[in-house]
Amino acid sequence: MGDWSGKTVVITGASSGIGEATAARFAKEGADVVVAARREERLQELKDRLSDLPGKVEYKATDVTNQQQVEDLIQFTVDTFGQVDVLFNNAGLMPLSFMKNKKVDEWEKMVDVNIKGVLYGVGAVLPHMLERNSGHIITTSSIAGHEVMPAGAVYCGTKFAARVIMEGLGKEIAKSDVRTTSISPGVVDTELTDTITDEEALDMLKKGIGLNEMTPLQSEDIAEAVFYACSQPKHVDVNEIIVRPNQQG
Ligand code: NDP
């Protein structure tokens, strides 16, 4: 895909952070973008902020844990722009906690958003892409989808799963022109840690990986990598990208 005008990108988790920056990156190139998340006012603000860019931006309030809402998001995009060229499954939560603290509701939320949300996205868009024999599904995994950290058993489990789901899907549809990518960021300066309620986990995070000394990535750094993966010529399939801050071990 060289020219993005007339192409459509759907992004979940676009009300902040990586999703928001990726929406701007594609709209700048002329792609039409549908941004989705639960906080509708943030999506409206984003649409207003990007209104001067060449691509059109629309939004649809979507909770990715609700399968029907994810189906509706894809249908809304097809009805509005005619097709889906890229689905970026990016919505995610990271309420890290130690297992002994038994934050069962947070375990369930992570499984629902980080795994089931990805599956619902794949399920909703795949028939459409296979029918057109064109499209790209890209999912945000993490360094935590490659390495397990203390207080991250469940989060890492969900991010391993997200990565493996992309890999499995890629193998299943290898003969088609539909492509799959998982993107694994290291520390990015976003709102992601706001959901952590376990004080011990917060403390460990601050001390353990030297967050205070590190220059984190910005969301735009990941948006650039997503754009790279989706902009390759048709015969190239970028299956996996890892991007971490220079100082992150
Ligand atoms: P943010 O907290 O800024 O973004 C998370 C996004 O997910 C928000 O837009 C939020 O929107 C959305 N979201 C959460 N729950 C739901 C839901 N049920 N339905 C729909 N949307 C939902 O953090 P990031 O930008 O950092 O996170 C984006 C992705 O990147 C996540 O998958 C995260 O795990 C991953 N990641 C982040 C890293 C980092 O260091 N920041 C490192 C590696 C991976 P809303 O609340 O409005 O629904």
Automatic annotation (TrEMBL):
Keywords: Oxidoreductase
InterPro entries, alphabetized: KR_dom, NAD(P)-bd_dom_sf, Sc_DH/Rdtase_CS, SDR_fam
Residue ranges occupied by any Ketoreductase domain in the UniProt entry: 7-191
UniProt GO MF annotations: oxidoreductase activity, acting on the CH-OH group of donors, NAD or NADP as acceptor
Coiled coil segments of this chain: none
Similarity remark: Belongs to the short-chain dehydrogenases/reductases (SDR) family.
Protein name from the UniProt record: Oxidoreductase
Organism the protein comes from: Alkalicoccus urumqiensis (Bacillus urumqiensis)
